[in-house]
Each structure stands twice: as C-alpha cells, then as structure tokens.
Amino acid sequence: MLTFTALGPFHAWSDGVPLDLGGQRQRAVLARLLVAGGRAVPVHTLIDELWPGDPPAQALSTIQGYVSRLRRALEPGRAPREEAEVLISAAPGYALRAATEQVDSWRFESLVKSEGTSAQVWAAMESALGLWRGPALAEFAELTWAATEAGRLEELRLIAVERRADAGLALGRATSLVADLEAHASAHPLRS
C-alpha cells in the first residue's frame, strides 16, 4: 500500500519501502497535490507556485516530465499508456488520489476533528499527535503554498494538544498533563 508523510520529512512509501521521488521541484509537485486534498490542481497553478514570478520557457513540459517520473515511482507496474490510479490527470491539471489513511496529514486532520466521549477524544488526539515527526512540509518552506499549509497544520496540532488536555482533565489525568501543558503554555503564551 502507498503511504505519504508530510508531518515531518516528506516521503512516499510502498509497503514500508521509501520511494525515490526525485529532486526538490519534482517532490514539490507531489507535495502540492497532497496539500490539495484530492482536488485537481491546474497546471498553470503548479507552474506559478513552483517558479514564483519567473517560470522557465519549458515549464509545461517540465511539469509533464515530473508527473511522468512520479507516476513511474508511485505505480511501477503500470504500463506506459495505462491510466494512472494515484497521480491522475484531472482537467485542467493533476490530482492525488489516495484514501485518508494513506496520507498522514489527511488522517491527522480527520482525527483532530473527531468527536466522542472524553476517552475517545483522548485516544484520537494521542493518535493524531503521534503522527508528527517534525515540522510539516519543512523542505518546501520557501514556497508560499507550503508555508500556508504548514501554518494551518501547526494550528491544528495546537488544537489537538488543547483537546487532549481537556479530555485528560475530564478523565482525571491532570498530573500526567502538567509537563506537557507547561511546555505548551511557555511556547504559546498568547493562546487561551
């Protein structure tokens, strides 16, 4: 099964084996499609966001080459003219087709938004926070779309910390929360 990680170093895995996603811009194409959450990203948007203000003359063919190489990496058994199942053509551009469970940031967001009893919320927030392995999309931090998404994910991470604390207090786990909450309050003194 293919899996994608963006909550820390950006990688794609096939049955636990890391895939070679190519160079920085090629990796950025896949990361940008991941950030779109399954929606199509127009080719002109990819070009504008990968080369802000100064795209090369051959930007379109470069994007097409990146997509072709990514498809080979993600679906090595696919015949050359066979329709892609993961990185698909979706007018007017491309989209990443994956289940929520295959993408750590998608799963994280789903867990953070989940509801239930205090015990269920505690478990969901523990699972959500356990998905983080470092700053989200850090290798693409100079690209506006990545910085925006990283900020959004960081805000959700802070919400998860706070929801876990609320659930922990309701479950009588105040003592075990003190160190985490002190660190959280110190790092984010303006959060209420």
Describe the structure.
- The chain is mainly α and 192 residues long.
- The chain folds into two domains: 2-96, Winged helix-like DNA-binding domain superfamily/Winged helix DNA-binding domain (Arc Repressor Mutant, subunit A, Orthogonal Bundle), CATH 1.10.10; 100-187, Tetratricopeptide repeat domain (Serine Threonine Protein Phosphatase 5, Tetratricopeptide repeat, Alpha Horseshoe).
- The chain has helices spanning 24-35, 43-50, 59-74, 104-112, 118-130, 144-170, 174-187, and strands spanning 2-5, 11-14, 17-18, 41-42, 87-90, 93-96.
- The strands form two sheets. Strands 1-2-3 form a three-stranded antiparallel sheet, with no helix packed on it. A three-stranded antiparallel sheet has the order 4-6-5.
- A hairpin with a 2-residue loop joins strand 5 and strand 6 (93-96).
- Helix 4 runs antiparallel to helix 5.
- The N and C termini lie far apart (41 Å).
- The model has no long low-confidence stretch (mean pLDDT 94).
Share of β-strand residues:
5-15%
Shape-level CATH architecture of the largest domain: Orthogonal Bundle
Note the gap between the termini.
41 Å
CATH class of the largest domain: Mainly Alpha
* Mean residue pLDDT: 94
Using only C-alpha atoms, the radius of gyration works out to: 19 Å
The share of residues in helices is: 40-55%
Quaternary structure state of the chains depicted: single chain
Main beta-sheet strand count, sense and barrel state: 3 strands, antiparallel
What is the domain tally? 2
CATH topology of the largest domain: Arc Repressor Mutant, subunit A
Structure classification? mainly alpha
- Shape, per Cα inertia axes: elongated
| H-E order | EEEHEHHEEHHHH
